[in-house]
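User: Teach me something about this protein's shape.
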Amino acid sequence: MQLHAQKATLRLAETFTISRGSEDEAEVVQVEISHDGTRGFGEAAPIERYDESAASALAWLEHVELGDDPFALDAIFDGLPPGEQAARAAVDAALHDLQGRLTGLPVHRLLGLRPQGPPTSWTIWLGDPDDMARRTEKVAGRGFRRLKLKLGGFDGLDVERVKSVRAVTDLPLMCDVNEAWTLDEALEAIPQLQIEYCEQPLKAGDPGGAALKAQSPVPIYVDEDCHTLADVRACAERAHGINIKLAKSGGIREAVRMAHAARALGLGVMLGCMVESGLGIAAGAHIASLMDHVDLDGNLLLAEDPWPGVEFVDGVQRPSQRPGLGVEKHAVEKHGVETSGVEAA
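Assistant: First, the predicted structure itself:
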């Protein structure tokens, strides 16, 4: 098998803001793996919070050796270098895409999964309370059935943000604080919020996690606390559920393991995403049926999606029934800026 990788820039339709900062574009790495004339594709969305970047992903991919059997996943992944979970996820997705194209099956059928998961939430990014309410009104009629509110403004206005949004919509709400609250702040704020669950209110590893789980009137989900299968058991002590992201877990295979482990521990399971094209979102959509909650709106945040194929229907990000991931590259020169690449065998 041959591997080619290149960096691309995805431009957002509007500036996206969370507690850690704002962005107008996102750098990703798109991976192509070829075997006997058939190609599979995957996308890495490196996370700065975990010291990963497009440059570090490309550097990691230079050391990848794949062998000659695209179905020998255990052997392939046992031989990969450590680290760089986003790049690993791109290799994983490209191999699943390749397998699907070789067999004529969509990835969810390769995995024996149902074709469709829960509706995706739409993210209302962080702003002042009135601004978040106005942006909520703008998405009415677009088909979303759930909203996720980004909180963590460090200004004492987070409760007001949720109340302002609640005043203009009847849709179910959840919030993501991105590690911005202390235990005392969380215990004060959460009882005042009309939400279904609260995601990562405390910093990863905060010793107050167990106390918050015990006292919170709504479920606590963790994101920054939970990366791979090895983290799931400890998360059961501090949360009611986990947020799985392929860019953290290293791909589809690990995400499926995490979902089953979480179920065994009585935890809820959520599937999240980064700012990604349809190529990255497709990999998540094919395993979304394993989840209780889904947040797969990364491609819907873009000015244009260079990898169409995931269908947004009645609030759900539906995976394609075409072979593999079911997305195809479309006019990428309009949307992404390819700056560097690597080749590997």
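Now, about its shape. The first helix runs from residue 54 to 61. The longest strand covers residues 2-18. If you'd like, I can walk through any region in more detail.
User: That's plenty for now, thanks!
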